[in-house]
Amino acid sequence: MAIFLTKDSKVIVQGMTGAEGMKHTRRMLAAGTDVVGGVNPRKAGTRVDIDGRTVPVFGSVRDAVDTTGADVSVLFVPPPHAKAAVTEAADARIPLAVVITEGIPVHDAVAFQAYARARATRVIGPNCPGLISPGQSNAGIIPADITKPGRIGLVSKSGTLTYQLMYELRDIGFSTCVGIGGDPVIGTTHIDALAAFEADSETDLIVMIGEIGGDAEERAARYIADHVTKPVVGYIAGFTAPEGRTMGHAGAIVSGSSGTAAAKKAALEAAGVSVGATPTETAGLVLALLAETPGNLA
After folding, report:
1. Binding site for substrate: residue ranges?
2. Would you list which residues are annotated within the binding site for CoA?
3. Helix axes 216-227, 190-199, angle to 10 degrees
4. Any idea which GO molecular function terms this record carries (predicted)?
5. What is the SS3 string spanning the chain?
6. What is the CA radius of gyration of the chain?
7. Which residues 6+ apart lie within 8 Å of 255 measured at CB?
8. What is the β-pairing status of strands 47-50 and 53-58?
9. Do the bridges between strand 130-133 and strand 137-140 make them parallel or antiparallel, or are there none, so unpaired?
């Protein structure tokens, strides 16, 4: 009942011994995540005690993978070192790298995304909250206590809106919530998540959150029309953005009519997606769809 991340995922944290890494490693462990190690070349061979759990620190991702069988890495590294960190994870053939770091130069993101893709490493992010399969595992910074396991899949560009929809639909619950990030160059896209949710037998309905700028949502709409049979509910952040302004994420840049919230809403609705005007209305659309198909979701 999850995509990309399950209770069997073995997670390492690159940058675990830093302040942010330690804080969120503690939260991931509390959520039940199987954190099997951290990576810091300067602290290789040491161990860190976190709320009664002893976590070893390795000198490299390769050492961590060889010793623990890790298949997920969560990266809390400063922007100047992010390219090298993702490259190291890809060289170790980590299947999933979750890049939380924001402020990574675009040319670095372009380089490490291509490098990881060539080595079959899925990247989520950068500048993202990560992903959570409630009740199973949490890789990133998403709060684990605001929802429960269920059969809704959520993919979102916005971390804050991820949390809001999780909370508003907490009585229904989620299979997996994926925050893909709002930078101009990201690894896992709306389409990647939509395909995975469509293939997941225990996801019955999909919520997709986009935002102004670019054409990712329009491309996702075309994909939904051609390939997705499950109901999809959407929301586009930025309906009230002043014309000609850059808002929020680095990717939220509008030129003329391209990339506007209205254009994205129209494309999604043409593909059969119900689109809310606000996050609360979006949650209401989900509940309405569920009411029309009683017994569809547990």
Report:
1. 163
2. 17-20, 43, 100-102
3. 20
4. ligase activity
5. CCCCCCCCCEEEEECCCCHHHHHHHHHHHHCCCEEEEEECHHHCCCEEEECCEEEEEECCHHHHHHHHCCCEEEECCCHHHHHHHHHHHHHCCCCEEEECCCCCCHHHHHHHHHHHHHCCCEEECCCCCEEEECCCEEEECCCCCCCCEEEEEEEECCHHHHHHHHHHCCCCCEEEEEECCCCCCCCCCHHHHHHHHHHCCCCCEEEEEEECCCCHHHHHHHHHHHHCCCCEEEEEECCCCCCCCCCCCCCCCCECCECCHHHHHHHHHHCCCEEECCHHHHHHHHHHHHHHCCCCCC
6. 19
7. none
8. antiparallel
9. antiparallel
Q: What is the pLDDT of residues 107-120, one digit of tens each?
A: 999 999 999 999 99
The structure tokens listed for 138 are: 């949490």
User: Average pLDDT for residues 122-140, to the nearest whole number?
Assistant: 98
Task: Find all residues with CB under 8 Å of 201, minimum gap 6, and list them.
Answer: none
Tell me if residue 249 is catalytic.
Answer: yes
pLDDT, tens only, 172-199: 999 999 999 999 999 999 999 999 999 9
Residues 71, 235: Cα–Cα separation, whole Å: 32
User: Letter for the amino acid at 123?
Assistant: V
- Tokens at 233, concatenated: 């509910």
Mean pLDDT for the stretch of residues 269-291? 96
Give binding residues as ranges. Answer: 17-20, 43, 100-102, 163
Q: How many CB atoms lie within 10 A of CB 241?
A: 18
Options 24, 107, 190, 249, the catalytic residue = 249
Per-residue confidence (pLDDT) for residue 296, from 0 to 100: 54
